[in-house]
Amino acid sequence: MILNIGKKAKPVNETHRGRMTRDGIRIHEKADFAGMHKAGELAARILDELAEHVFPGQTTGEIDRMIEEKVDAAGALSATIGYKGYQHASCISVNHVVCHGIPGDKVLKDGDILNIDVTVIVDGWYGDTSRMYVAGKLSRKAERLIQVTHDALFKGIEAVKPGNTFGDIGHAIQTYVESHRMSVVRDFCGHGLGRVFHAPPNVLHYGRTGTGPVLEEGMFFTIEPMVNLGRPETKVLADDWTAVTRDKSLSAQFEHSVGVTADGVEIFTLSPAGKFHPTWG
Ligand code: MF3
Ligand code: CO
Ligand code: CO
Description:
Protein name: Methionine aminopeptidase
CATH architecture: Alpha-Beta Complex
Radius of gyration: 17 Å
Distance between the termini: 27 Å
Keywords: Aminopeptidase, Hydrolase, Metal-binding, Protease
Number of strands: 17
Number of domains: 1
Largest sheet: 4 strands, antiparallel
Enzyme class: hydrolase
Number of helices: 4
EC number: 3.4.11.18
Bound molecules: 2-amino-4-trifluoromethylsulfanyl-butyric acid, cobalt (II) ion
Helix content: 10-25%
Strand content: 15-25%
C-alpha cells in the first residue's frame, strides 16, 4: 500500500470480534486464524498455478485474465477489482516497475522479471501475497536481486513474535538488504489486514529496533519488501498506479500475509505446492 505516515489511521469496521490496540491494530481471536489460512492458501495456490503461464510472448493482461478466472472458479472474490477504481485481479510489475503495475497488452520478453500480486477474499477474510517470476532466462543480476528480496522477507518474518516491535521487522529487512548493497523502497509498505484489505499499522520495511508498536498475539498483517538494485526512490506514472524506480534500476518484491501467535508467527500464504521462488518452480 502507499505509505502515508502522519495520516490519521481510519478506524476499521467496528462490528468485528476481538479488540483493538491504542495504535488501532486489531487483535484477532484464535478462531480467526482458520479464515486467514483459507484465504491465504487460495491466493498462494493461484500463484503456484501461474508459473507455467509466464514465458516470453505472454501478455500481462492474459495472466491477469487467468487469475480472475481462478478466483471465480474457487467461488472467491478479487479484492483489487473495484478497489479505489482499480479494475484488475492482480498487479503485475515488470523489471523497473516497483509495484502496482497494471496488467494489459505488455508482451513479456526473454529475461523479464515480474512480480505478480494477488489478493482474494474468502468468507470475508483477505489473503494477500506476491512472488517473483521470470520470462525465459534469468540473468545473474536479476537472480541475485530476487534471492536477496526473498530472503529479506524471511528475515522480517523471523522477527515476528509477541514482545518484538514493528521496528524490529523493518530493521531486520533493511540491514539484510543493505548488507548486499541493494536498497529498500520507503514509499510503500505492508499493512494490517483481516476482514479488511488495508488496516493499521503501516508495516515499514526499514527502521530501528525497539521502535513502533509492540507485536501482540492475534495481529494479522503483510510484510512485502520492495528492493531495488539501484537507489530507493520511486515515482508514480501518469496512470496514477504504476510505481517505478526513478533511476530505472531493477526492482523485486515478495509478500506474505502473517499472523502473530503466542510464541511466533504463522504464514497464511505459504505455497501449498512448496513453491515460492522462481528457481524452485
Ligand atoms: N495487493 C497490494 C498490496 O499488497 C495492493 C494492490 S491495490 C491495487 O497491498 F488496487 F493496486 F490492486
Ligand atoms: Co499487501
Ligand atoms: Co499484495
